Amino acid sequence: MRNKSKEKFNRMIYVLWCFLILGICVVSCNKIYNLGNEEVEKNLNKIVLEDEYIPELSFNEKRYIPAYSNLYYKSESTYIYCTVILSVRNTSLTEDLYLSEVDYYDTYGTKLKSLIEKKNKVRPLETKEFIIEFKDDKGGSGANFIVDYSAENKLKDMPIIESITIGHHGNNGFTFTSNSQVIQSH
């Protein structure tokens, strides 16, 4: 009787060890697989589309977004330099946006730079951000962005396009947003 119970006990220990090892393998493989997927997803967000992959786009809109790369402080000759983030948020659950133009202009209306080279796809609920560093003082207090985007059909859920200005003076920091305004739609 003792041998049978000892043998039963040994089998149970063996089965538990097998389950433990199997569990560790599953968890490890799952972590490796998920890490790989996260990397793939991050890289997918940086894909620039070639013309052959872009569907026919019948809706097009252009928006103006104010940006404040520097603000006056105490006088018109003293400035506080700021970081500006342009945020393009696709609020649709089902429709893609296609950014064709994201340009940054200074106070005098001179184009300083294009922030994209080719059309960029913004998937449902995805956000694209473009950053103007606080060291980039060329924009001035009247800087702005022009964003041109398209979609396959007239959008039911319009995107949220805004700039966020972030700055500080001494120990005090501040942040404010500026909403976009439609300047062209067809």
Topology:
Blueprint lengths: L1 H43 L14 E8 L3 E4 L1 E7 L1 E7 L7 E9 L5 E4 L5 E3 L4 E6 L11 E8 L8 E10 L2 E8 L1 E5 L1
Antiparallel strand pairs: 1-9, 1-12, 2-3, 4-8, 4-10, 5-6, 5-7, 5-9, 10-11
Account of the 3D structure:
Mean pLDDT is 85; it is low at 40-44. Strand 10 (160-169) and strand 11 form a beta hairpin. The protein has one helix at residues 2-44; strands spanning 59-66, 70-73, 75-81, 83-89, 97-105, 111-114, 120-122, 127-132, 144-151, 160-169, 172-179, 181-185. It has two domains: 1-44; 55-185, Immunoglobulin-like, CATH 2.60.40. With 186 residues, the protein is an alpha+beta fold. Helix content is 23%, strand content 42%. Strands 1, 5, 6, 7, 9 and 12 form a six-stranded antiparallel sheet that branches. Strands 8-4-10-11 form a four-stranded antiparallel sheet, with no helix packed on it. It contains one helix and twelve strands. The radius of gyration is 27 Å and the shape is elongated.
